[in-house]
Amino acid sequence: MNIWSDISPDQLINIAIILPLIGAALVILLGKYPNIRETASLAIATLLFTVVLSITDNTFAQIPMTSHWITIIPHLSIAFNVEPLGVLFALVASFLWIVTTIYAIGYMRGHKEKNQTRFFCCFALAIATVMAICFSANLLTLFIFYELLTLSTYPLVTHAGNDAAKRGGRIYLGILLGTSIAFLLFAVLATWVSAGTLTFTAGGIFNESQSKGLIALLLVLFCYGVGKAAIMPFHRWLPAAMVAPTPVSALLHAVAVVKAGVFSILKIIIYIFGIDNLSQIATTDVMLYIGAATVLLSSCVAITKDNLKARLAYSTVSQLSYIVVGALLASSVAAAGASLHIATHAVGKITLFFCAGAIMVAAHKKKVSELVGLGRQMPITMIAFAIGSMSIIGLPPLAGTWSKWYLVVGALESDKLIIVAVLMISTLLNVAYLLPIPIKAFFNPSDNKRPRWSDINEAPLPILFAICVTSFSCLALFFYPQPLIDLINLIPDVSTHVTGGS
Amino acid sequence: MIELHLAILPIVLPLIAAPICFILGRSQWCWLFATLISGLSCAASVGLLVATLDQGVVSYAVGGWQAPWGIEIRIDVASALILSLVSGISTLVLIYANQSIAKEIDTSKHALFYTAHLLCLTGLSGILSTGDAFNLFVFLEISSLATYTLVSLARDKRCLIAAFRYLIMGTIGATFILIGVGMLYMKTGTLNMLDLADKIAVIEGNRTLNTGLAFILIGVSIKLALFPLHMWLPPAYTHAPSAVSAFLASTATKVAVYVMVRFIFSIFGAQYVFETMSMDIILLVLAIIAIFKCSFMAALQSNMKSMLAYSSVAQIGYMILGISLATSAGLMAGLLHIFNHALMKGVLFMALGCVAYRVGSVDIKSFRGLGKTMPWTMAAFTIAGLSIIGVPLTAGFVSKWYLVTAVFEQQQWLIGFVLLLGSLLAVVYIGRVLEAAYFGEVSQQQETNIKEAPLTMLIPMWVLVLANIYFGIDTSVTVGAADAAAQWLSQPHISGAN
Amino acid sequence: MSFIAEHYNYWIVIVLMMAGFYIVIASNNLIKQVIGLSIFQTSVFMMYISIGKVSGGSAPIVAEAVTSFSNPLPHVLILTAIVVGVATTAVALALIIRIKAAYGSIEENEIGDKDNVSE
Questions:
Q1: Could you tell me if B108 and B45 are in contact, meaning their C-beta atoms sit under 8 angstroms apart?
Q2: How many alpha carbons fall within 13 Å on the CB side of residue A213?
Q3: For burial by CB atoms within 10 Å, which of A3, B188, B264, C75 has the most?
Q4: H-helix or E-strand containing A298?
C-alpha cells in the first residue's frame, strides 16, 4: 500500500472515486477480449482496495482528508470528506468487490450470460458511486450519488431482459426513485431551508431555532426516504431485485446498495441529527418500533419462502433493520453495534449469496426444498453456507457475534427491553430459516449410501475460491475485530465502551 | 455602429432575411442562409446578455422617436436571457431541420418552412425586446401566424385541423390581450410599459384596471397553454413536423410565460396582482392541477410526441407555480425552469425527430430495441428524460431544487411534497420509453434496417444534451442570470427608482 | 337609464363580441368559425376607435380654430390590429382550403369521423 504514500491524502479520495470509473471505461474498451477485460477489472479492484487501505491509515493517523469538486448551488457543492464511518463502509465494499469480481468471472462464464461487458461496466460504475457515498461531505453529495447508484444498478437488475426481469426492474426503480424523490429530496430541501446547511457535522446541525415538529417529521422522512434501507413497507424492491444475476444480488443487494442505504441512515443520524439529540425527537421511538417490527415480520416471511434467493432477500431486509434499530436506539454502544453490523452482516450474507449462486451454476437448483442431500455433491459450498448462516445468527466463533453483542448491550443501556426481546426472538427465527438448509444438506435420512468422491460436483474454481475467502473472513472478523472496532471508536459520539454503571 | 443598434438586431435580422429566404427558393440555400441569420441573431442576443448583466438595461428608441411616444426597445436581464435561449435553440433546430424536414415536409414547401421559421423568430425576439404593450401584441401575432403556418406544413393531414384549432384559440387569446391593453390605455393614456407601471401604481381599486388584468391574464394563459386552456397544444405539437415541435416546445410557450411575467411584475406590479387581486391562489391551483392531470395524461399516450406535448403542459405548470409564489425566489425558479426546460424539451423532441426519420413512426411500439440500433439518439433521450425527472447532475434537478426551496421558504410544505410527487409521474412516462428502447423485443428485420440518425441531426441534439449536463453541474451562469433577472423584476419600478 | 344610454358604444361592443364568440364556439362549419372570429375581433376594433373620441372634439387634423380634437393614437393602433386580423383571416381561409382538399369537407364532425376511421 506504500505505492500511494507519495500522493497527498486529499487526492486519495479523488483516486478512490475515479479508479472504478477508469475501470468501467477499460471494461468498455476491452469488451472484445474477455480475458483482458476481467484482468483489468480485477486489477482495478485490487488497486482500489489498496487506496482505501491507505485512506484508513491516514484516518488512524488523524490526517484530515477533504476534496472539493464543484459548487452546484451557491454554498452547496459536491464535496468529499473522510470520516471513520465512511472508511469502514469503503473498506467493506472495496474488499468485497475484489472477491465478487473473482466470483462473477466464474459465475457469468459458468452460466453463459450475455452482455457481460455491460454487466462489468455497470458494476464498476456502481462501486464508483458507492465510494462517493462513503466519503460524501454533505447531504447534497450523498443524495446525488445515492440516485446515481440506483440508476447504475438498474441495468444490472434487468440484466436478463425477460419479462420477469423487467417487472423486477420496474419495482426496483419505482420504489427506490419514488421514495428518494418524494421523501429524501423533500427532507434534504427542508433541512436546507430550515437549517441553512447540509454539511455533515459531528453532533448534528439542528439547533433550537427549528421547530420540534419539523425535526420529528424530518426523521421519518429520512428513514423512509432512504428506500435502500428497506424498512417496511418500502422493502418490496429488494426481493424484486433478486431476478438479477447472483453476483449482483451478492455484492449489490447484500453489500453495496443496501448497505449504502443503512449507511446513509447512520450517517444522517450521527451527523445531521446527532445521537445525543435523538431521544428528544418525538418520532424516534415510532421509527424504532417500525424497525423492530420489520426485523420480526421479514424473518417470518423468510421462513415461508422456498426460493433460496428470496429467503436470503427477506433475511437481508430483517438484518438491515438491525442497523436501523441500532442507529435509533440513541445509545453510543448501539450505534457502534450498528456500524459493526455493516461489516459483519456483509461478509456473512455475501457468503450465503455466493453459495446460492454456486448451487445454481453447479446443480441448477433454486429452491430450498431441492437442496436436501446436496452436501454430498457440494461439500465445500454447503460448509461455507453453514458458516455464513451461523455468522448471521450470531453464533461464536463467527463475526456476527460481535455486532449482535453490542446491539443488545446498547438496547440494555437505553432501557429498551422490548428491543432486547426482539433481537433475541429474531435470532431464533434466523436459526429457523437458515440452519435447516445446511443440516438437511448433510444429514439426509433417506440416503444411506456411503459418500464417495465421485459424487462431488462442485462449482467452478473461481466461485469456490471466492466462497472460501468470505467464509474465512467471517471467522477472521471474530478473532480480529479490533481494527474495525478502533475505527468505529473514532466516530464522534459512537463508542463500544459502555459508559454504564449508571 | 453595431453596438449602437445591437438591441434591434435580433428582430430586424430575421425579419429582413425571411422574404429573402422565400426568394432564394432552393432548400439547401435557404437552410444555409437561415442558419447563418439565426446564428447572427444569437450572437447579438448573447452580446445583449453580457451588456445587460453589466449595465442592467439596454434601451433603444425605434426610428429615433423617444419613449413614451415612440416605440421603445427595452432589454433587461430577463429578456436578454430568454432572447439568447430562443435564438440559440432556433439556430440548433435550423441545423437539425435540413435532414429532418426532408422526410417530413414536401420539397416545394421547404423555402416556406425557413421563411415561417425566421418570421416566428422575429416575433419571439420582438416580444422579448419590446417595451411597448401594444407592440407586444403585434409581435405576438407575428410569431403566432408564423407558428400556425409551421404546424400546417407536415405531410400528415391531421396537422391542418390541429393548426386550425390552434389558430382559433390563439386568436381568441391574442384578442383578449388586445382588449386588456385597450383598457389599460383607456385608464392611463399610455402604452409604454414603464409609463404604464408608473401610472398604474398610483391608481387604486379601479374596475377598468381589474377587468383589463383579467383579460390579459386569460389571453396570455391561452397562449402559454395553462391548464385548462391547453387543449390546442397537444394536437398541434403532435402533428407538426418534428423540427417545428422541437422549436415551439422549447421557445413559443416559454416566451408566453415571459409575457405573463412581464405583465404581472413590470406593468401591474406583483403587489396589485397577487395581494389586491389574489391571482396567486388561482394560478397556484391551476398550476398544481396542470402538473398532475397532464403528467398523468402523458403517461397514457401511445404517441410519444403527444406524450411530450402533455409533459410540456405539465412543465409549464411548474413555471407558473414558481411565479405564483409571488416571491423573488419563486420568480427566479420559474425563470430558471423556463431556461432549463427549453434545453430538455428541445432534446426530447429532436430525438423523436430522429426516430421518425429512421423508423417513420413515433409510436411507443416503434421504440423497441432502439437502444441498440440508434444508441446515440436514445442516449440523448435518456439524459434529457432524466433531466425532466429531475435527477441530480442534470439541469432539471437544479430548477426543481430552486422551485421546491422557494416553496419551502413560504412554509408551504404540502405544496412542496405535491411537487415532488408530480415529478414521480415523469418517471413513469419517461421510463416507459426507456424500457421499450433498451429492453424491448427487437424484430430481426428492424435490427438490420435501422441505422443511427445522420450527423447533422445528432450534433445539434448533442449540443443541447451537453448543455443539459453542463447547466446541471455549473449553474453559476443560469442561476446568476435568473437571480439578477428576478431581482430586477421584483423591485418596484416607480420612475424615481429608474 | 342614462347610464345605459351614455355608454351605448360599449353595449354595441359587448353584443358584437358575445355574438362572435358564440359563433366560434357553436359552429360546426369552419368558415362560420372564421366569420365569428372576425366579428369578435371587429368588436374590439370598435371599442378602441370609440374610446379615442373626445366629446366635442373634431377630427385630429391640425387646422385653425380647433382646440379640442379626438385622440388619433387608438385609430393608428387599430389600423395595425386590423392588418393583423386580416392576416389571421387569410391564414385561416388558406388552412380551410387545404383541409377541404385533404378531407373533402369543412364540417368539423365529418372531419373528426374521417380522422377516427383513418386511425
A1: no
A2: 1
A3: B264
A4: helix A284-304
Nearest CA in chain C to B158: C115
CA distance C111 to B159: 12
Question: Nearest residue of B to residue A221 by CA position?
Answer: B417
Strands (E), B3-152: 57-61, 72-76
Best mutation target, B292, B295, B388, B408, to test chain A (most A CBs within 10 A): B408
Domain count for chain C = 1
In tens, the pLDDT along A271-323 reads: 888 888 888 888 888 888 999 999 999 999 988 888 888 888 899 899 999 99
What's the total number of domains in chain B?
1
Neighbours of C55 (CB within 10 A): 6
Mean pLDDT of A262-270: 90
Q: Chains with 3 or more CB pairs closer than 8 angstroms to C?
A: B
Q: Which range marks the domain in which residue B361 is found?
A: 300-493
Grid coordinates of B342? 427549453
3-state secondary structure of A199: strand
Residue pairs between chains B and C whose CB atoms are closer than 8 Å: 67
**Measured between CB atoms, which of B409, B423, B439 is closest to A181?**
B423
Cα–Cα dist A86/A83, whole Å? 6
Percent of chain A with pLDDT over 70: 96
DSSP B172-207: HHHHHHHHHHHHHHHHHS--BHHHHHHHHHH--S-H
Min CA distance, B411 vs chain C (Å)? 42
> Which of B134, B157, B185 is facing C103, going by the closest CB pair?
B157
| CA atoms of A382 and A437, how far apart (whole Å) | 9
Inside any domain, residue B171: no
- Closest-CA residue of C relative to B185 is C74
DSSP string, A372-428: TTHHHH-HHHHHHHHHHHHHHHT-TTSTHHHHHHHHHHHHHHTT-HHHHHHHHHHHH
- Who contacts A202 (Cβ-Cβ below 8 Å, separation ≥6)? A270, A271, A274, A492, A493
CB contact under 8 A, C77 and B145: no
How many angstroms separate the CA atoms of B401 and A272, rounded? 20
A302, A496, A498, B273 from A421: Cα distances, Å:
19, 21, 20, 62
Question: Does the beta-carbon distance from B439 to A190 stay under 8 Å?
Answer: no
Interface test with A, best of B291, B327, B340, B397 (most A CBs within 10 A): B397
The C-alpha cell that represents B484 in the structure block: 439578477
Residue from the list C33, C48, C115 with its beta carbon closest to the beta carbon of B168: C33
Residue by residue, what is the 3-state secondary structure of chain C? CHHHHHCHHHHHHHHHHHHHHHHHHHCCEHHHHHHHHHHHHHHHHHHHHHHCCCCCCECCCCCCCCCCECCCHHHHHHHHHHHHHHHHHHHHHHHHHHHHHHHCCCEHHHHHHHHHHHC
A502 pLDDT more than 60: no
Q: How far A140 CA lies from chain B's nearest CA (Å)?
A: 9
Look up the ipTM and state it. Answer: 0.91
Does B415 touch chain A if contact means CB atoms closer than 8 Å?
Answer: no
- The answer to the question of residue B145 being in a domain is no
Q: In A, which residues are within 8 Å of B386 by CB distance?
A: 151
Domain that holds residue C85: 2-118
* Peptide linkage before B228 cis (omega within 30 of 0): yes
Tell me the CATH number at C29.
Answer: 1.10.287.3510
pLDDT by residue (tens digit) across B210-231? 888 899 999 999 998 888 888 8
In this complex, the residue of C48, C88, C102 whose CB is nearest that of residue B171 is: C88
pLDDT at B495: 41
Q: Which of C37, C44, C80 sits opposite B168 (nearest CB)?
A: C37
Q: Which residues of B touch C33 (CB under 8 A)?
A: 168
- Taking CB atoms and an 8 Å cutoff, what residues of chain B touch A190? 408, 413, 416
Residues in chain A within 8 Å Cβ distance of B390: 181
